[in-house]
Amino acid sequence: MSDQTNGTAPTQQPEPADYRQFMELLININAQLQRLSDRMDAAEQRAAAYETRAAANEARAAEMDNRIAANNIRITAMFKNLDRRAKNAACFRCWQTPATPLLPLVNLTTGQEIIGSPATVEQLSRIDEAATRNILDALQIEHYNHDAAGARELLRFYTMYAST
Fold first, then answer.
1. What does the pLDDT read at residue 7?
2. Which of 103, 116, 120, 126 has the fewest CB atoms within 10 Å distance of its CB?
3. Residue 64 located in a structural domain
């Protein structure tokens, strides 16, 4: 049976030269698509590297922000302590009594008043060693090479610029 008897047109076989050109065209297109794919892969890798660097930079920026905030607290606390030491010293020089009130010093890490700070000169002279060392730690003052009396003298100096 021929193709014409069932109503379809006869199919023509492509010329070998046409087939060869078509295959070369497909190979060319495939090579171009592969180059584009390689370029896209390289661009995606660069983008991923940029994202990684951006995330690392954000982490460093956040760490720097935290350090700046901690330094701001520390510097503010140091100035508060200088002011309070001067006021404590002025009060003590004026009144010169054991009942002279003392302003509490401020923790350099938290910026809050140090709990357990002596409220009077008398309390300062009778403060126990553990409380003395806790306050000196909060003030970030090296005291471990001092005995109890030496640590208490450090606290007295840093509380009101005075020694015994």
1. 60
2. 126
3. yes
SS3 of 35, please?
Answer: helix
Residue 135 lies in a domain: yes
How far apart (Å, rounded) are the C-alpha atoms in residues 63 and 82?
A: 28
Looking at the structure of the chain, the number of domains it has is 1
Q: How far apart are CA 118 and CA 132, in angstroms?
A: 9
C-alpha 44/C-alpha 37 separation (Å) is: 10
Specify the pLDDT at position 9.
Answer: 63
101 phi/psi in degrees, rounded to 5: -75, 150
Measured CA to CA, the distance from residue 132 to residue 116 in angstroms comes to 9
pLDDT of residue 1: 46
**Cβ neighbours for 45, distance < 8 A, ≥ 6 positions apart:** none
Sign of CA dihedral 7, 8, 9, 12: negative
The neighbouring-strand residues paired with 120 are 101
Evaluate whether residue 103 is within a structural domain: yes
Residue 103 belongs to what domain range?
37-160
Predicted pLDDT of residue 17: 79
pLDDT along the chain (164 residues), means of 10: 56 76 92 95 94 95 97 97 95 91 97 96 95 97 95 94 60
CB atoms within 10 A of CB 109: 14
Question: Is residue 84 domain-resident?
Answer: yes
